[in-house]
Design a protein that fits this description.
The chain has helices at about 10-25, 30-60, 70-75, 80-95, 135-145, 165-170, 180-195; strands at about 95-100, 110-115, 120-125, 155, 175. By secondary structure, the protein is α/β, with parallel strands linked by helices. The protein folds into 2 domains: about 1-60, no CATH class; about 65-195, Trna Endonuclease, Chain: A, domain 1.
Protein backbone atom coordinates (compact mmCIF):
# COMPACT_ATOMS: atom_id res chain seq x y z
CA UNK A 1 0.00 0.00 0.00
CA UNK A 2 2.94 2.32 0.56
CA UNK A 3 3.59 2.13 -3.22
CA UNK A 4 0.22 3.72 -3.98
CA UNK A 5 1.05 6.72 -1.84
CA UNK A 6 4.28 7.43 -3.76
CA UNK A 7 4.30 10.47 -5.99
CA UNK A 8 5.10 10.13 -9.69
CA UNK A 9 8.48 11.81 -9.17
CA UNK A 10 9.41 9.34 -6.43
CA UNK A 11 8.42 6.40 -8.64
CA UNK A 12 10.55 7.72 -11.55
CA UNK A 13 13.47 8.26 -9.19
CA UNK A 14 13.11 4.69 -7.87
CA UNK A 15 12.99 3.24 -11.39
CA UNK A 16 15.97 5.37 -12.41
CA UNK A 17 17.98 4.16 -9.40
CA UNK A 18 17.05 0.54 -10.11
CA UNK A 19 18.02 0.83 -13.77
CA UNK A 20 21.38 2.37 -12.83
CA UNK A 21 22.03 -0.54 -10.45
CA UNK A 22 21.02 -3.04 -13.15
CA UNK A 23 23.32 -1.35 -15.70
CA UNK A 24 26.18 -1.32 -13.16
CA UNK A 25 25.80 -5.10 -12.78
CA UNK A 26 25.47 -5.82 -16.53
CA UNK A 27 28.04 -3.33 -17.88
CA UNK A 28 31.17 -5.43 -17.18
CA UNK A 29 29.59 -8.42 -18.94
CA UNK A 30 28.07 -6.74 -22.04
CA UNK A 31 30.36 -8.78 -24.29
CA UNK A 32 28.95 -12.03 -22.84
CA UNK A 33 25.45 -10.96 -23.83
CA UNK A 34 26.70 -10.01 -27.28
CA UNK A 35 28.33 -13.42 -27.73
CA UNK A 36 25.16 -15.19 -26.56
CA UNK A 37 23.09 -13.23 -29.06
CA UNK A 38 25.55 -13.98 -31.86
CA UNK A 39 25.58 -17.69 -30.96
CA UNK A 40 21.80 -17.71 -31.24
CA UNK A 41 21.46 -15.59 -34.40
CA UNK A 42 24.48 -16.55 -36.56
CA UNK A 43 23.56 -20.21 -37.15
CA UNK A 44 20.27 -19.02 -38.66
CA UNK A 45 21.68 -16.17 -40.74
CA UNK A 46 24.99 -17.59 -41.91
CA UNK A 47 23.66 -20.40 -44.17
CA UNK A 48 21.29 -17.97 -45.88
CA UNK A 49 24.09 -15.43 -46.46
CA UNK A 50 26.45 -18.10 -47.81
CA UNK A 51 23.75 -19.58 -50.07
CA UNK A 52 22.87 -16.14 -51.45
CA UNK A 53 26.54 -15.37 -52.24
CA UNK A 54 27.00 -18.80 -53.83
CA UNK A 55 23.87 -18.39 -55.96
CA UNK A 56 24.92 -14.88 -56.96
CA UNK A 57 28.27 -16.24 -58.15
CA UNK A 58 26.48 -19.00 -60.09
CA UNK A 59 24.18 -16.47 -61.70
CA UNK A 60 27.16 -14.41 -62.83
CA UNK A 61 29.06 -17.55 -63.90
CA UNK A 62 26.06 -18.71 -65.93
CA UNK A 63 26.02 -15.43 -67.85
CA UNK A 64 29.59 -15.65 -69.11
CA UNK A 65 28.88 -18.35 -71.69
CA UNK A 66 29.91 -18.04 -75.32
CA UNK A 67 26.52 -19.05 -76.68
CA UNK A 68 22.92 -19.42 -75.62
CA UNK A 69 23.08 -23.16 -76.32
CA UNK A 70 26.02 -23.55 -73.90
CA UNK A 71 24.01 -21.70 -71.25
CA UNK A 72 21.04 -24.05 -71.74
CA UNK A 73 23.32 -27.09 -71.40
CA UNK A 74 24.80 -25.64 -68.23
CA UNK A 75 21.33 -25.02 -66.76
CA UNK A 76 20.33 -28.60 -67.58
CA UNK A 77 23.46 -29.87 -65.82
CA UNK A 78 22.89 -28.29 -62.41
CA UNK A 79 20.79 -30.16 -59.84
CA UNK A 80 17.11 -29.21 -59.24
CA UNK A 81 17.79 -27.41 -55.94
CA UNK A 82 20.56 -25.34 -57.53
CA UNK A 83 18.20 -24.55 -60.40
CA UNK A 84 15.54 -23.27 -57.96
CA UNK A 85 18.10 -21.07 -56.19
CA UNK A 86 19.41 -19.86 -59.55
CA UNK A 87 15.88 -18.84 -60.61
CA UNK A 88 15.34 -17.08 -57.26
CA UNK A 89 18.59 -15.15 -57.80
CA UNK A 90 17.58 -14.32 -61.38
CA UNK A 91 14.24 -12.89 -60.22
CA UNK A 92 16.06 -10.97 -57.47
CA UNK A 93 18.20 -9.41 -60.19
CA UNK A 94 14.96 -8.52 -62.02
CA UNK A 95 13.82 -6.50 -59.00
CA UNK A 96 11.79 -9.06 -57.06
CA UNK A 97 12.34 -10.06 -53.45
CA UNK A 98 12.45 -13.85 -53.51
CA UNK A 99 12.15 -16.80 -51.20
CA UNK A 100 13.01 -20.35 -52.22
CA UNK A 101 10.43 -22.76 -50.81
CA UNK A 102 11.08 -25.82 -52.99
CA UNK A 103 11.44 -29.30 -51.62
CA UNK A 104 9.32 -32.40 -51.25
CA UNK A 105 6.44 -30.57 -49.60
CA UNK A 106 6.53 -27.32 -51.56
CA UNK A 107 2.88 -27.54 -52.63
CA UNK A 108 3.81 -27.03 -56.28
CA UNK A 109 5.67 -23.77 -55.68
CA UNK A 110 9.47 -23.58 -55.71
CA UNK A 111 10.01 -19.81 -55.42
CA UNK A 112 7.83 -16.97 -54.18
CA UNK A 113 8.74 -13.66 -55.80
CA UNK A 114 7.29 -10.39 -54.53
CA UNK A 115 7.34 -7.00 -56.24
CA UNK A 116 5.38 -3.88 -55.32
CA UNK A 117 3.50 -5.84 -52.63
CA UNK A 118 2.23 -8.45 -55.12
CA UNK A 119 3.23 -12.11 -54.76
CA UNK A 120 4.08 -14.25 -57.77
CA UNK A 121 4.62 -18.01 -57.66
CA UNK A 122 7.28 -19.88 -59.60
CA UNK A 123 7.54 -23.57 -60.47
CA UNK A 124 10.94 -24.78 -61.72
CA UNK A 125 11.25 -27.96 -63.79
CA UNK A 126 14.73 -28.95 -64.88
CA UNK A 127 14.04 -31.32 -67.77
CA UNK A 128 16.68 -32.47 -70.21
CA UNK A 129 14.75 -34.51 -72.78
CA UNK A 130 11.17 -34.48 -71.53
CA UNK A 131 8.78 -31.68 -72.47
CA UNK A 132 6.52 -30.19 -69.80
CA UNK A 133 3.07 -31.70 -70.22
CA UNK A 134 -0.34 -30.09 -69.80
CA UNK A 135 -0.78 -32.16 -66.61
CA UNK A 136 2.20 -30.49 -64.93
CA UNK A 137 0.96 -27.01 -65.88
CA UNK A 138 -2.58 -27.89 -64.74
CA UNK A 139 -1.25 -29.14 -61.38
CA UNK A 140 0.74 -25.92 -60.92
CA UNK A 141 -2.30 -23.79 -61.71
CA UNK A 142 -4.37 -25.82 -59.23
CA UNK A 143 -1.73 -25.22 -56.55
CA UNK A 144 -1.63 -21.43 -57.01
CA UNK A 145 -5.15 -20.52 -58.19
CA UNK A 146 -6.39 -19.72 -54.66
CA UNK A 147 -3.33 -17.58 -53.89
CA UNK A 148 -3.39 -15.37 -56.97
CA UNK A 149 -4.96 -12.00 -56.37
CA UNK A 150 -3.03 -9.62 -58.59
CA UNK A 151 0.06 -11.73 -59.19
CA UNK A 152 0.74 -14.51 -61.60
CA UNK A 153 2.49 -17.81 -61.86
CA UNK A 154 5.71 -18.50 -63.73
CA UNK A 155 6.38 -22.04 -64.92
CA UNK A 156 10.06 -22.26 -65.86
CA UNK A 157 11.72 -25.22 -67.56
CA UNK A 158 15.10 -25.98 -69.11
CA UNK A 159 13.28 -27.65 -72.01
CA UNK A 160 9.99 -26.70 -73.67
CA UNK A 161 6.23 -27.10 -73.23
CA UNK A 162 3.86 -29.31 -75.17
CA UNK A 163 1.32 -27.58 -77.39
CA UNK A 164 -1.48 -28.68 -75.02
CA UNK A 165 0.35 -27.09 -72.06
CA UNK A 166 0.68 -23.80 -73.98
CA UNK A 167 -3.00 -23.87 -74.94
CA UNK A 168 -4.05 -24.53 -71.34
CA UNK A 169 -2.04 -21.55 -70.04
CA UNK A 170 -3.29 -19.07 -72.66
CA UNK A 171 -6.22 -17.71 -70.64
CA UNK A 172 -4.63 -18.22 -67.22
CA UNK A 173 -2.38 -15.87 -65.23
CA UNK A 174 0.59 -18.15 -65.92
CA UNK A 175 3.66 -17.29 -67.96
CA UNK A 176 5.35 -20.31 -69.48
CA UNK A 177 9.11 -19.82 -69.75
CA UNK A 178 10.94 -22.41 -71.82
CA UNK A 179 14.72 -22.68 -72.11
CA UNK A 180 15.02 -20.06 -74.88
CA UNK A 181 12.81 -17.53 -73.10
CA UNK A 182 14.79 -18.19 -69.90
CA UNK A 183 18.00 -17.35 -71.75
CA UNK A 184 16.40 -14.04 -72.86
CA UNK A 185 15.61 -13.26 -69.19
CA UNK A 186 19.21 -14.04 -68.22
CA UNK A 187 20.61 -11.92 -71.05
CA UNK A 188 18.36 -8.99 -70.04
CA UNK A 189 19.86 -9.14 -66.53
CA UNK A 190 23.32 -9.32 -68.08
CA UNK A 191 22.64 -6.19 -70.17
CA UNK A 192 21.22 -4.31 -67.17
CA UNK A 193 24.34 -5.23 -65.14
CA UNK A 194 26.55 -4.07 -68.01
CA UNK A 195 24.88 -0.65 -68.06
CA UNK A 196 25.43 -0.06 -64.32
Amino acid sequence: MAFINLSFGEMVKGVSTASRWAWALVKPFWWVFLILILIRVLPELLPAIIRKRKNSKKLKAGQVWRSDRDLIYWLRGINPTEFEHYIAELFSALGFSTETVGGSYDGGVDVIAEKDGVKHYIQCKKFITQQVSVGAVRDFYGAIADHLAKGKGYFITTNKFTLEAEQFAQDKPIELIDSFKLVRYIRSVEKADGKK
